[in-house]
């Protein structure tokens, strides 16, 4: 009895935590498609897990609830792929497209067919439909794996530590694989294994995410205490290196560029880079990066007058229009629109 209660609590906890994490990723700012896809993925798996948990402990559960949970499975594969796809697009500094409409549209079309043939009237079809649903899921995992393989060069930089977002990416992908394997193995194990695997993978993912974040905080603290005044020649050399990597690698086009990443590219400490920017240029990191972005924006505004300002902002590495307009006004003393009008 106690073990049964423990299993129910542990499985239900995974579903509830998944919903809370989904809300967290939906609400993260700045808004990114990758976060939205991850939030939707966690929500779909949570629904499937809740169904599995309640069905295991209450086999007489209403068939409508069973159909709802099984339908959620149709979304897990596409959402895993879309999360990987949009996350990699951010790393490649590509503008996120609307391909999610096609992938999720197919899933919702199949789900709508299920409404025409409900579980209550066609139980035989639904009992055997899981083979097709799992195959659908597996094909999307293969597509996601191919995306990861093609992007291995940018995911694993020999000169840098693995980013926290990359660890999260692989944790989520591996969790999706683990949950599928768990559901496929239920004839040999137990129906509750799928729910337990999700609970386990969610908590492992959160632990990995939080430990990595804590490690970064400790690194920043350590660098803070190691901070010391640079010699003039060393400061000028570092400033030259910063300009070089910014121009040659166009790091400023990355909307997720951080002081840590810029420092890593030059082999320096974050505090050292910040110190040089303040002492030699009298600029903050954000202002330094935004000046490169605004220079690019001015060229695009002049050379491609057909583009609207939202696209200009995206192409220059800004996360939002408001940030772009504020930076443009601060650096040039005029709005993007007035700059375009004065230049035509």
Automatic annotation (TrEMBL):
SUPFAM superfamilies: Homeodomain-like
One Pfam family, short name: HTH_18
UniProt-recorded name of the protein: Helix-turn-helix domain-containing protein
Keyword Transcription regulation applies: yes
Key words, A-Z: DNA-binding, Membrane, Transcription, Transcription regulation, Transmembrane, Transmembrane helix
Domain HTH araC/xylS-type residues, every copy: 243-342
Transmembrane residue ranges: 6-26, 38-57, 69-88, 100-119, 131-149, 161-184, 190-211
Provenance organism: Undibacterium danionis
